[in-house]
Amino acid sequence: MIVEYDVEPVRGLPGDLPQGERILWQGSPDAWRLAVHAYHIRAVAIYFALLAGWGAVGALRGVNGWTGTLMTLGIGAIGLAVIGAIAWGAARTTVYTLTNKRIVLRFGIALPKCVNLPLGTIAAADLAMQGKGIGDIALRLTEQQRLGWMQLWPHARPWALTEVQPMLRSISEAENVAGLLARTVGAAQGTPAAATPPVLAVAA
User: Fold this and answer.
1) Global pTM?
2) For residues 200 and 127, what is the distance between their CA atoms, to the nearest angstrom?
3) Do residues 42 and 83 make contact, with C-beta atoms less than 8 angstroms apart?
């Protein structure tokens, strides 16, 4: 369930930790990687570059002037700046927390929102690396937990609309976090230590 709140007694959490619960890990998205992989800033830059290049070719041939090309470049620069600012704000206001009882996603630039995922609702997790130790961890949930994709975005697996999967996006040391998550979920669900952890590497 997603809840909104104004007061944050513990960083990344909507309330104090209950007795017996402890924080094992906290992290936030890398702003640039979030801009690239969630907000597709590179694709937007390429799009405007192609438009500007096409306009420049026309200007050199005398088909049209340089005004359109310069306007395209200006609009593109503004668009990229806006996307970068949104990604920076999203990264700055997002905190992922893993405790021995649950995973908590805190996000929201204007008003903090919080998603509490008890470890018992996590069926498996998919790890996708982006390079330099940064990656995404998508959480596959049991039927006990129902979430809305739009409410979670960009902290949801792209295109997984029917089976919404919360995602820890663009986090550092993703492989280590995935291993810790697997062990913690296994312990919480009573999985034998020798069993395969519920984390699957899906991309390099």
Assistant:
1) 0.84
2) 6
3) no
Distance of CA 83 to the CA centre of its chain: 15
pLDDT profile of the chain (204 residues), mean per 10? 67 87 94 94 93 80 72 92 95 94 91 88 90 92 77 89 90 93 87 48 41
Largest CA distance in the chain: 74
Which residues are 9's β-sheet partners? none
Residue 117: beta bridge partners? 103
Partnered with residue 167 across adjacent β-strands are 138
Backbone phi, psi, residue 169, to 5°: -100, 135
Determine which helix (DSSP H) or strand (DSSP E) holds 67, and give its type and residue range.
helix 67-92
Map tokens 């409410």 to a residue. Answer: 151
Find out whether 183 and 197 touch, Cβ atoms under 8 Å. Answer: yes
Cα–Cα distance measured from residue 77 to residue 81, given in angstroms and rounded to the nearest whole number: 6
Token reading at 89:
């704000």
Answer whether 168's CB lies under 8 Å from 96's CB: yes
Amino acid, res. 89: G
Other residues' Cβ atoms within 10 Å of the Cβ of residue 4? 11
Name, in order, each residue with C-beta under 8 angstroms of 37's C-beta and a sequence gap of 6 or more: 130, 136, 169, 170
- Which among 202, 27, 42, 26 has a CA at the least distance from the CA of 130? 202
Return the residue matching tokens 């799009």.
47
What 3-state DSSP class applies to 128? Answer: strand
